[in-house]
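idk why but the lab printer keeps eating my pages so im just putting this in chat instead. protein + coenzyme A:
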Amino acid sequence: MPSVILETERLRLRSVLERDIDDVYTSCVDPDLQRWVPLPAPGEPYTRENAEDFCLRLAPGIRTSGDGQHWALLEREGGRFVGSLALLRTEWPAKVTEVGYWISPWGRGRGYAAEAVVAVSRWAIDQGFQRIELKAAVGNIASRRVAESTGFVHEGVERNAMPLNEGRTDLAVYSLLPTDLKTTP
Ligand SMILES: CC(C)(COP(=O)(O)OP(=O)(O)OC[C@H]1O[C@@H](n2cnc3c(N)ncnc32)[C@H](O)[C@@H]1OP(=O)(O)O)[C@@H](O)C(=O)NCCC(=O)NCCS
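predcted complex ->
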């Protein structure tokens, strides 16, 4: 996937770098993040080594392997790190990819996830992708609201699809197609 820097009204989306390790670590140990995104794996505590591995190997490796691309989200004003967003599980022949994200505790409540999802989805559709998937635990109301407010269409539920730290959850499945953009302001 071509490496790209994107800018929105309030955010700059660039590659994840070594200097993000501390912010990634502090964000990923947050209980509200761990509730819905059980990193590094369900039941395993998130360590600083996990943050190092993410910034130095996993995030860059996902792009070079063709699986997708990770962006760090920074406030344009001041440059503060406020979250991460990725395209993942890219199926090149089918032109299908999936978007995933988290916002650092100190960046939440300002609509940053939606702003970044719009920018990345539009970029992906400009690259020729025909379907962008977004999956959220059915109880993750904030994430589902991000999907709905950015024009993703609810398709249904994958039952018992994802292990969390506390049991398993159904996943709400959304998608965005190029034709959906025509109806999204
Ligand atoms: C989900 C997440 C990315 C949203 O980030 P954000 O940009 O700060 O989102 P906001 O707080 O601005 O909220 C987005 C929308 O959800 C709504 N919302 C937020 N928390 C809510 C709650 N507990 N109940 C109901 N609605 C809620 C907001 O009012 C807003 O609605 P709007 O679009 O009508 O204005 C962030 O909460 C997060 O990182 N959570 C932990 C990790 C995670 O769940 N990642 C997604 C995995 S699929």
